[in-house]
Structure formats: C-alpha cells, structure tokens
Automatic annotation (TrEMBL):
Pfam families: HNH_2 (PF13391). The lineage of its organism: Bacteria, Pseudomonadati, Pseudomonadota, Gammaproteobacteria, Chromatiales. It comes from Rheinheimera aquimaris. This is HNH endonuclease. Keywords: Endonuclease, Hydrolase, Nuclease. Residues 145-196 form the HNH nuclease domain. GO terms for molecular function: endonuclease activity.
Length: 249
C-alpha cells in the first residue's frame, strides 16, 4: 500500500503543534497529539512520528545527544528552512492552516488579516507571530522560568534576549527567547542580570542594596547558577553575547 504524502496544510498543523509542545510530550498518548491527529486525519502515532522527525532538524535537539527520528522528508526540511528565514510569515501560514481546519487559536487574527489594509495587516502578522513566539519559548523551557523554576504560566514571560526594537529580523525567532518569570524578565530587560557563555546567571554589581532581603533572595542569590536549558530552540550564543555587551550593566 502506497504511503499517503503529507499535504502542506497537514504539515503546517503539525509544525504548529511542535511550537506548543515540550519535546518530552511528543507521544501518541498525549491528548494534544490525539486532537491534532483527528484534525489532519492521521493516526496519533503518525503525528507523534512527524513531530519527532521535525525534532531531528532542530540543532537544540541533536546537539543535546537526542536525535528525534531520522525520517524527516525533503518537504519537512524545506519548511524548516522556510520557518528559519521568515518567522512572521510562517506563523501566519500556521495560523491560517489551523483556521481552515476549525482550530480557533488565532481566528480573530486571521480574519482581520484577510480583510485588513496593508498597515493593519503588518500589525496582525506581528500579533500572530508574538503568540507563536510565546508558545515556542514557553514550551521549549517546559513551562518553567529558566532561572527560578517558577511554573505558573500566568507569571511567565517569553523574554527577548535582543530587544524587540533592536533586531526586526529576529523579533519572532524562538532562539532569541528565554522563559522567565515576570520579575526576572524585567531584571533581564533592565540589564540587572544576564547569561554568560556557559549559560550561568550573572547579576550586576550595580544598584545592589545588601539590606534589601527580597532582592537578595529573588535575584542576587541566582548569581553563578546555571539556567535550565530548553528542550528545543536553544538561546543563540550571538544573541546572549549582544545582551552581555549592550544591555547588561
């Protein structure tokens, strides 16, 4: 029996799921995998395999000694490159594919995009991209702050390493993100903390009041401690270097 090829729409749907799920949940028993399998008329095992094949294209996976599976198709590889080259456009494509199959994560955004003027369209694309950026970054860190371990999603931020205003091309690149608590996101944004080349937290010696017990416990105490590295979408070394050089105090 001939293998039925994956359509572009089906592949976009699974790429969207790849953004949202931690690596450890790429299995056929996962309710999300089952839901998306029904959407694309595939078995949960086929979707789980597709996720693992996509993972084999992610350097964060392969460099950590994991390999995913090795059956990524040429179409998967082309789509991976397409994603790397234009995160915003790829995010919109995933959102549109979801809407066409009845997933309402981005329905309002996509409907607006279909009818918007050019200036509004750009804003809608960014909004969709921001939502995928958050999903990708937070899931990569298994929904925990990489500094403190805080696991309350309402208090987590997909923090940009290189600021939004500084690098337009990488605004939506998950490699330019860290999952941080709201407090550590603000400290990172202000340059009170950074991450060194060995992925350890560095706390600025400026503006430090040793009598401030909360600051000491919540921020200063993490100096020298390693961050929890993500399962996918590793923070890029060049982005962290930029933060140390241009933002850290």
């Amino acid at each position: 029996m001939a293998t039925v090829r994956w359509t572009r729409q089906q592949s976009l749907i699974v790429f969207s799921l790849y953004f949202r799920l931690p690596f450890g949940r790429f299995h056929s028993r996962n309710p999300d995998v089952i839901q998306y399998a029904n959407l694309v008329s595939r078995t949960p095992s086929a979707v789980a395999m597709k996720l693992s094949n996509i993972a084999s294209l992610d350097p964060a996976i392969t460099q950590s000694g994991r390999s995913g599976l090795t059956g990524a198709s040429s179409a998967d590889k082309v789509m991976w490159q397409e994603m790397q080259q234009d995160w915003a456009a790829f995010s919109v494509a995933m959102a549109q594919a979801e809407q066409e199959l009845g997933v309402d994560n981005f329905t309002d955004c996509v409907n607006t995009a279909s009818n918007a003027e050019t200036t509004k369209l750009a804003a809608v694309k960014v909004r969709i991209g921001q939502q995928f950026f958050r999903s990708a970054v937070i899931s990569a860190y298994n929904q925990r702050c990489c500094i403190s371990g805080l696991a309350n999603p309402k208090l987590l931020v997909a923090s940009h390493i290189v600021p939004w205003k500084t690098d337009e091309q990488n605004r939506l690149n998950p490699h330019n993100g860290l999952a941080l608590s709201a407090l550590h996101d603000k400290a990172f944004d202000l340059g009170l903390i950074t991450v060194d080349e060995d992925y350890r937290v560095v706390v600025s010696s400026q503006n430090t009041d040793k009598s401030d017990q909360f600051y000491t416990a919540a921020i200063a105490s993490f100096h020298g401690k390693p961050i929890t590295l993500p399962e996918k979408f590793y923070p890029a070394a060049q982005f962290l270097a930029f933060h140390r050089e241009h933002i850290f105090q």
